[in-house]
Amino acid sequence: MASLATIVRYEVLIFLGALALIISIQLLIGRINRRRLLYAKGRAGTGNKAQINTSPSTGQRTSGLSPSRIQLLIVSIGVAIYLMVEVVRQPSHVPEIPLGILLLMAGSEIIYLVSKANNLSKRRTSNSQT
User: With a threshold of 0.85, does the pTM exceed it?
Assistant: First the structure.
């Protein structure tokens, strides 16, 4: 009889595989919207006010690429690659995440959240003035 650890390992692999398959299918058939994913909503972003337009997919105002979204994506992908390399190197155990990596992720998330809060307060201020 297989050990409990082996059964759990296969269950987790099956679950993650099924989740990846579902997300991939949803992306391919268009049920998950990828348009303007890295663009800022409202008046945020690197574009000027003349570039603000309405997204056909969401109906929200968008303006230029969002630096905070791009940096969050790059840091997340970098950390994911690092962890995958560590798992391939030593597949027998879960890798320890160094403090530097945790601080990098936390800093990236904080930058993104501060940017979102700043954009939200700008929108509220502009809505109350109009």
Answer: no
